[in-house]
Structures are given as structure tokens and as C-alpha cells.
Design brief:
The protein has helices at about 20-30, 50-60, 75-85, 105-115, 145-150, 165-170, 185-195, 225-240, 245-270, 270-280, 290, 295-305, 310-325, and strands at about 10-15, 40-45, 65-70, 90-95, 100, 120-125, 140, 165, 200-210. It is α/β, with parallel strands linked by helices. The protein has two domains: about 10-220, Spore Coat Polysaccharide Biosynthesis Protein SpsA, Chain A; about 245-325, no CATH class. Strands 1, 2, 3, 4, 5, 6, 7, 8 and 9 form a nine-stranded mixed beta sheet that branches. The chain is globular and about 60 Å long.
Length: about 325
């Protein structure tokens, strides 16, 4: 095991993931170059049948390819950070235990980052398993501002787990997931890393399937969700030194963009007290920065809020009854 030098260390945090984790592990194992990589599963104190499924799956593969580390429950950030410490690959990627890789995910991103000599290589993600790209797509070099704008305005769906990272940059910049933040820790890590990169590559293919699980942290609405605003401020702080040329573009759009998303969630769930607290803390005119960029539904929501936050609240409160069926404003 000590002689094995994986090209990529894939880190999978898991907690009570018995429903989907077998599918997630198989999606790694069925990747075209999985035997040249390692999957590090961090079992974050699961109390269901997750560990047994992991053991059964690990017995089917060499222990230098798939291994599991048990830790006391500390949250997804602590689990990912442990995985980073355990990683042996030159490159690092992430996968959640209820998601899936397409079969060319590892090969396409690895060949892309090597061939273009980029600091990072990204691909796109999808919420539809049927929309996963089945063929191999080559990465292309992308200018920094163009890629960051694509991610910022969501013209390309890129996330923390659809990105390949150089472990050397993570180490040099001492990047870790914030263990005190439950919401937004993933975008904080992604953007801090990207802000440290000089060269970029993109695989324009849906190689990652993101499963939205009912009852997951992202679907719960509490005041803790405002931590995503803390994550944005942490990114801005990092960018001031790592990418000062981009910090104004990022700050002027991302902060009101996250405010719109947060207020939509509070309104949809009837949390008027939370909504009012946010309304009193931030100037509604900042939403005009969002109203001119991004997808039409985002621009419409931002313009509505800038004119009348209460109309925004009433609209999304009424919409909540049909939103799940019609999938309106899903990307907000």
C-alpha cells in the first residue's frame, strides 16, 4: 500500500448514507482510470448500515484503491479536511456519498489538467442522472476571468465536487473547509482555491450527478443558513490578496446573489422574522447588481426585491405551494 502513488485522491465524506453510498462508490470504481486513483471514504460517525456497505464494497477492490477511515461525528467539513490530510495523490477531487461520477470524470479532468498544465480543471454537474455525459470530452484552456464569470453567473454549473485540485496549491495556501460553517463551506473552499490559480481548464460536459436529497442540510431552513453570507465574506477577504483584480466583480454580485437565495428560502417557508432581520441589515438597492446579470429568473427576483422586499416575500410565500411541482425558480 505504501508504494502505491495514486494520480488522484478522491475524498468521500459520509454520514448515515446507506441509501446511496453503494452507488457512489461504484461510480468511482467504474471510472476508466479508477485503479490509478484512490478513494478515501471518511465515515463521519454513521449509526446506520453505512459501515457494513463500505466493508462489503471494499472487499471487492484492492485496499490501496478504496479505504475507509472512521472518525467521530464532526460534520462534512471536518470529514473532508481529514481526507485532505490522508490524501497521497498529486491531485484531489471530492464526491458526496449520495452523488455519482460519470465514467470519464477522472480521466477527462486528469488528462485536461496535465495536457493544458492548468492549476485546476473543472467540469459541469447536473441534477438529472439521464443528463450525464456518456462520451469522453477533452478539456480546453480557459481564461481566468471567463471561467470565474461562468461560475459566478452560473452559465456553467461548476461546484466544489466537479473540480480537480492540485494538492500542492491546497498545501501552499493552507486551504481547508471551514468547520464552523454549515452552509456555504463548499463555495468558500472552491472560490478560495480558484482565486489562487493562474491557469484554468474546462471540460464542457456533465460528468457529475448531484442528488438533491429530501431532508438534507441544504433543504432545511434555519437562521444558520445565513452562514453562507459569512462564507462569502471569507472569500472576499482571501481574494483581496490572491485575486485583487477580481474581488470587486465577485463581491458586487455574489453577496446580493446569496441574499436573494436566502430571502427566497425564508419567504418560501414563511420565516417572516428571519426575512425581516435580513431586510433590515442590507440595503435593497444592492440587488440591482444582480438584476442586470445572470439568468432571467434571478434577474426578475432581484428586481422585485429591489423595488419591494415585501412583494418579494408575498410572491415566494404564495409560490411555495406549487414550486416543488413546477420547479419554478429552482436555481435561485
Amino acid at each position: 500500500m505504501s508504494d502505491f502513488k495514486p494520480a488522484i485522491s478522491v475524498i468521500m465524506p459520509c454520514y448515515n448514507a446507506e441509501k446511496y453510498i453503494e452507488t457512489a462508490i461504484r461510480s468511482f470504481a467504474e471510472n476508466t482510470i479508477s485503479t490509478k486513483c484512490e478513494l478515501i471514504i471518511i465515515n463521519d460517525g454513521s449509526t446506520d448500515g453505512t459501515r457494513k456497505i463500505i466493508d462489503d464494497m471494499c472487499s471487492c477492490y484492492p485496499d490501496n484503491v478504496i479505504r475507509c477511515i472512521d472518525i467521530p461525528n464532526g460534520g462534512v467539513s471536518a470529514a473532508r479536511n481529514r481526507g485532505i490530510r490522508e490524501a497521497r495523490g498529486k491531485y484531489i477531487s471530492f464526491i458526496d456519498s449520495d452523488d455519482m461520477y460519470a465514467k470519464y470524470f477522472l480521466e477527462a479532468l486528469l488528462s485536461g489538467i496535465r495536457r493544458t498544465r492548468a492549476d485546476t480543471c473543472c467540469c459541469c454537474w447536473t441534477r438529472s442522472e439521464d443528463s450525464l455525459t456518456k462520451q469522453k470530452v477533452e478539456a480546453v484552456p480557459v481564461k481566468k476571468k471567463k471561467l470565474l464569470n461562468n461560475i459566478l453567473y452560473k452559465t456553467k454549473l461548476v461546484a466544489v465536487w466537479s473540480t480537480l485540485y492540485r494538492r500542492s496549491i491546497i498545501a501552499a495556501e493552507n486551504l481547508r473547509f471551514s468547520e464552523t460553517i454549515k452552509y456555504g463551506e463548499d463555495i468558500e473552499f472552491l472560490w478560495k482555491y480558484l482565486s489562487c490559480c493562474k491557469t484554468f481548464a474546462l471540460v464542457n460536459a456533465n460528468y457529475y450527478f448531484y442528488r438533491l436529497v429530501p431532508g438534507s442540510a441544504m433543504n432545511r431552513v434555519t437562521w444558520d443558513k445565513t452562514q453562507m453570507l459569512d462564507a462569502v465574506m471569507n472569500i472576499i477577504g482571501k481574494m483581496k490578496t490572491s485575486s485583487p483584480e477580481y474581488v470587486e466583480s465577485f463581491a458586487s454580485y455574489m453577496l446580493p446573489r446569496k441574499l436573494i437565495s436566502l430571502q427566497k428560502d425564508f419567504a418560501s417557508h414563511g420565516e417572516l422574522e428571519y426575512f425581516s432581520r435580513i431586510e433590515s441589515q442590507y440595503d435593497k438597492k444592492m440587488m440591482l447588481h444582480v438584476a442586470g446579470r445572470g439568468k432571467p429568473e434571478v434577474r426578475l427576483a432581484a428586481l422585485t426585491y429591489a423595488v419591494s422586499p415585501r412583494s418579494f416575500y408575498l410572491f415566494f410565500r404564495q409560490l411555495s405551494g406549487i414550486q416543488n411541482k413546477m420547479k419554478l425558480f429552482q436555481e435561485l
